[in-house]
């Protein structure tokens, strides 16, 4: 097993990889958190929007109830207050059957209309100070026409009884659309009608203005979106084009973003008679985008990645140096050994006839054990290899019978003890010992991987350093060892 050398380029690549993994993890987690928080925020701000609409409706209802008793000098102040509190484009009051008062919010132009009988109508124009709310930019003649048209429509539409202020949609002959909030009260001596007019986009923008996140308000009629707030204006225009009927709600949800799904839609208010519906659409909270633009968060992530890289490298080095035993990637069986025998001895394979028995003298010989250990140390100091004990140099299978071991476990323990005695237990993590039967004869197989430390063998009171050169083992002098010692530096 060849050791991969440490380089700064690999450290940089590892850092980038960990950073990307961390960013991906944050994106997934932020999406999950955003979905949960967006749902909670959607309900919370929808309740606030309902309260805001109810407050406007209460102000309209109050003015309608008290309008008959309010003198003309104070009526203008009440109308201006209603414009300012609601940010409407126009306010229209019908104090009786023969009068109509309209104030435009943007310019503050007041139109007073009086029906004098026999079809005669007189108009009075004055300026009372505007609130700056966008109203559509109508000139004086158009304001007169709007006052007359609205008066006629409201007299026909509203019943002559107290009702809850309702939301409706009005289209002018010129094609302009307005959202109306109107009510009639008969509490006084004469019926009083109050109506607020909004441009649809301005009405929706008013609802989402206090919301500090991506949330869109939409106005629907018969399940067709006919207006949206500024947050989704571009997407709406791309879908609608010149189609005045509006766009399909599902198409808009797909366009506004990943959070724009049916479970991220909340109905704020709905009018059964007119079919108008105001909804909120959550487009997410932008948590990840906000974090990625925060220097403190970026520096924290960078520090975390550096610490993580250092920790991974430290653990990797520790495991490389101190793991207790070597787990080979191959299965040591008869087929594996037979294949190595057919290959013959070479750079990564060596055969030994016996472990401790000298076949020439017929006696146990310590030099036999040292010969086996020399080959194992040479493999560990070079590029790894396999030592097979019980096979002759020419490849004939001899077995361990000459060594007279009681069992295969006895043979494995003996080789392990000899290794610890002459080489040292520190390097035993580079060796994997196995017993294998081939052609009915017992063999010992030692798989050796390349060591990250120099491996010396001690015998005759001297330490020796061996490397593998082809099919043989070579002992290096001190000078030769010094030349190759850089490969072991960490």
Structural class determined from secondary elements: alpha+beta
Helix content class: 40-55%
Number of helices: 12
Radius of gyration: 46 Å
Main sheet strand line-up: 4-3-2-1-7-6-5
Broad shape: rod-shaped
Note the quaternary state here.
single chain
Main β sheet profile: 7 strands, antiparallel
The average pLDDT is: 82
Low-confidence stretches: 1-6
Q: How many discrete structural domains?
A: 2
* Straight-line distance between termini: 17 Å
Beta-strand percent range: 25-35%
Number of strands: 21
Explain the overall architecture.
With 490 residues, the chain is of the alpha+beta class. The protein folds into two domains: 38-287, no CATH class; 334-488, Methyltransferase, Cobalt-precorrin-4 Transmethylase, Domain 2 (2-Layer Sandwich), CATH 3.30.950. 41% of the residues lie in helices and 25% in strands. It contains twelve helices and 21 strands. The strands form five sheets. A seven-stranded antiparallel beta sheet has the order 4-3-2-1-7-6-5, sandwiched between helices. The protein has a five-stranded antiparallel beta sheet with strand order 10-9-8-12-11, sandwiched between helices. It has a four-stranded mixed beta sheet with strand order 13-16-18-17, sandwiched between helices. Strand 2 (99-104) and strand 3 form a beta hairpin. Helix 1 (8-66) packs antiparallel against helix 2 (72-86) and helix 1 packs antiparallel against helix 8 (295-322). The protein is rod-shaped, with a radius of gyration of 46 Å. It starts with 7 loop residues before the first helix and ends in a 6-residue tail after the last helix. The relative contact order is 0.09. The model is unreliable at 1-6 (pLDDT under 50). Residues 345-476 form the Schlafen AlbA-2 domain. InterPro entries: Schlafen_AlbA_2_dom, Schlafen_AlbA_2_dom_sf. This is Schlafen AlbA-2 domain-containing protein.
């Amino acid at each position: 097993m060849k050791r991969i050398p440490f380089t700064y380029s690999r450290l940089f690549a590892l850092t980038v990889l960990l950073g990307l993994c961390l960013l991906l993890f944050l994106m997934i987690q932020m999406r999950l958190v955003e979905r949960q928080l967006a749902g909670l925020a959607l309900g919370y701000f929808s309740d606030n929007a309902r309260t805001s609409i109810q407050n406007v409706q209460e102000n309209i209802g109050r003015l309608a109830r008290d309008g008959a008793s309010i003198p003309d000098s104070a009526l203008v102040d009440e109308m201006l207050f209603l414009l300012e509190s609601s940010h409407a484009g126009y306010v229209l009051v019908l104090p009786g059957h023969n009068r109509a008062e309209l104030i435009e919010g943007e310019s503050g132009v007041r139109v007073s209309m009086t029906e004098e009988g026999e079809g005669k109508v007189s108009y009075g124009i004055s300026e009372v100070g505007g609130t700056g709310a966008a109203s559509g930019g109508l000139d004086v003649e158009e304001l007169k026409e709007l006052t007359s048209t609205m008066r006629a429509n409201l007299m026909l539409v509203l019943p002559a009884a107290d009702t809850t202020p309702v939301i409706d949609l009005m289209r002018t002959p010129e094609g302009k659309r307005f959202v109306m909030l109107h009510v009639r009260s008969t509490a006084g001596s004469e019926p009083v009608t109050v109506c607020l007019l909004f441009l649809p986009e301005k009405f929706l923008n008013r609802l989402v203005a206090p919301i500090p996140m991506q949330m869109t308000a939409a106005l629907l009629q018969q399940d067709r979106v006919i207006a949206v707030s500024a947050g989704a204006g571009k997407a709406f225009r791309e879908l609608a084009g010149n189609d005045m009927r509006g766009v399909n709600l599902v198409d808009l949800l797909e366009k506004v973003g990943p959070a724009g799904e049916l479970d991220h839609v909340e109905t704020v208010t709905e009018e059964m008679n007119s079919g108008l519906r105001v909804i909120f659409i959550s487009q997410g909270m932008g948590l990840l985008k906000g974090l990625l633009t925060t220097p403190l968060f970026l520096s924290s992530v960078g520090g975390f990645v550096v610490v993580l890289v250092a920790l991974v490298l430290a653990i990797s080095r520790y495991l490389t140096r101190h793991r207790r035993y070597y787990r080979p990637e191959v299965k040591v069986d008869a087929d594996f050994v037979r294949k190595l025998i057919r290959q013959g001895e070479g750079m990564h394979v060596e055969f030994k006839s016996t472990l401790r028995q000298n076949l020439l003298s017929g006696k146990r010989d310590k030099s036999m054990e040292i010969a086996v250990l020399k080959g194992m140390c040479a493999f560990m100091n070079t590029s790894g290899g396999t030592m097979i004990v019980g096979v002759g140099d020419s490849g004939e299978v001899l077995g361990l019978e000459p060594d007279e071991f009681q069992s295969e476990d006895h043979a494995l323990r003996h080789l392990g003890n000899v290794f610890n005695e002459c080489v040292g237990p520190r390097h035993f993590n580079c060796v994997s010992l196995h017993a294998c039967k081939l052609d009915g004869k017992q063999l010992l197989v030692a798989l050796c991987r390349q060591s990250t430390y120099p491996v010396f063998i001690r015998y005759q009171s001297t330490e020796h350093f061996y490397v593998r050169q082809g099919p043989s083992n070579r002992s290096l002098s001190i000078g030769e060892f010094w030349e190759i010692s850089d490969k072991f530096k960490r």
